[in-house]
Specification:
Blueprint (H helix, E strand, L loop, with lengths): L1 H9 L1 H20 L9 H4 L27 H13 L3 H8 L4 H6 L3 E6 L2 E8 L2 E2 L13 E4 L2 E4 L6
Length: 157
């Protein structure tokens, strides 16, 4: 007990100075309403453009499972589709980058054949989500959903 008292007696000035500095820092942070939130609301947005102000933080918990036993193609399909399932405009833009094989491996895209050739579009078993505009409708010769051809203007070969 003597060593503690001796330590406090010797370092009393430093202890008081440290306490005053910490107190003043807390006071300045409180007065100027400084927050230490390092993630802005734009960074925490998950791509859903229709955020209504009910922001929530998303936490991804890694389970550290061995992924070698899982079907990697199925993982791609599920993650790709779940990211864009509520935003068909962005899904359609991302699907344009997929080739025929990758387009047919997902549950949220279709390969559309028309007079301009073939292109991947966001869609499902009912066809592409966007079928063009009134001025320029998308003329679908046929489309492939999960490697199954569905006839449009032209029959499947």
């Amino acid at each position: 007990m003597d060593t503690i008292n001796n330590f406090i007696y010797i370092n009393f000035d430093y202890i008081i100075l440290t306490v005053i500095i910490i107190f003043n820092l807390i006071l300045v942070v409180s007065i100027f309403d400084i927050n230490f939130k390092f993630i802005t609301s734009n960074e925490s947005n998950t791509g859903n453009e229709s955020n209504t102000g009910n922001e929530s933080n998303i936490i991804n918990i890694e389970t550290m499972e061995n992924n070698k036993n899982k079907n990697s193609e199925n993982q791609f399909t599920n993650s790709f589709c779940s990211i864009y399932e509520n935003n068909h405009i962005e899904l359609n833009e991302k699907c344009k980058d997929l080739d025929f094989e990758n387009c047919n491996s997902t549950r949220c895209s279709v390969w559309v054949n028309n007079s301009e050739g073939g292109k991947c579009h966001g869609g499902n078993n009912d066809g592409p989500h966007f079928k063009g505009t009134l001025e320029e409708p998308l003329e679908i010769d046929n489309y492939y959903y999960k490697n199954k051809c569905v006839s449009g203007i032209k029959k499947c070969e």
